UniProtKB/TrEMBL annotation:
Protein family: Belongs to the acetate uptake transporter (AceTr) (TC 2.A.96) family.
TM helices/strands, residue ranges: 12-34, 40-60, 72-89, 101-119, 126-146, 152-173
Entry keywords, A to Z: Membrane, Transmembrane, Transmembrane helix
GO biological process terms held by the UniProt record: succinate transmembrane transport
GO molecular function: acetate:proton symporter activity
Signal peptide: none
Matching Pfam families: Gpr1_Fun34_YaaH
Single GO cellular component term: plasma membrane
Name of the protein in question: GPR1/FUN34/yaaH family protein
Source organism: Syntrophotalea acetylenivorans
Subcellular location: Membrane
Keyword set includes Transmembrane: yes
Keyword hit for Protein transport: no
Length: 200
């Protein structure tokens, strides 16, 4: 049973379900910032709370010696906090909205960061690969939207972001059920010949 337990955790998202839910909420909000502007207060609360959860667990992981999880979650927490300065502060009269070139460059750089995570996710479950893959396409598409006048990239970016958020929720539910029952009741998928005894 202990071997099965270790294999369950090795294939899933490297964080508790709460962190995966926080990630899903912030990613979903990111997909809404293009076509629909949620209330400023709600946007700020979601971004700050999601960022704090991810940052706190990143610091906790670093203290435990789990630098890999910290390296994933710490930049994400900083990213969500930076969106507060771009989307919330200007609405409150604190500063101005960045121009299109700035947002294109900013989202593209974060897209490249997620691309690195996506390449590193091939040793994890298929669900984690889908999570980072759809988030990658979402960020790159939303960045391209700032350079074009049509809505093609906006629709693609928002759709990928919504699917990425759903994937994060699915991973959180799967982690909760599988870890509680200590077996694969909710499938996450395996790739490249991974077996139950594999680990990172």
């Amino acid at each position: 049973m202990s071997g099965s337990s270790s294999s369950v955790s090795s294939l899933e998202f490297p964080s508790p379900p709460l962190v995966a839910l926080a990630l899903s909420l912030t990613v979903y909000l990111l997909s809404l910032l293009g076509p629909y502007r949620p209330p400023v207060l709600l946007t700020g609360i979601i971004l700050v709370c999601g960022a704090v959860v991810q940052l706190m667990y990143a610091l906790y992981s670093q203290q435990r010696g789990d630098s890999r999880t910290a390296a994933v979650l710490l930049p994400f927490g900083i990213f969500w906090l930076s969106l507060v300065s771009y989307n919330v502060f200007p609405e409150l009269g604190l500063g101005r909205h960045p121009n299109s070139i700035t947002m294109f460059s900013y989202l593209s750089l974060w897209g490249f960061f997620v691309a690195i995570l996506f390449l590193g996710s091939f040793r994890r479950s298929l669900a984690v690969q889908i999570l980072f893959g759809t988030l990658l396409f979402s960020l790159l598409s939303l960045s391209m939207n700032y350079l074009r006048d049509d809505q093609v990239f906006l629709i693609i970016g928002c759709s990928c972001g919504f699917f990425s958020a759903l994937t994060a929720i699915y991973i959180a539910v799967a982690q909760t059920v599988n870890q509680r029952l200590q077996r694969y009741l909710v499938p996450l998928g395996r790739r490249f010949g991974m077996v139950v005894g594999d680990s990172d």
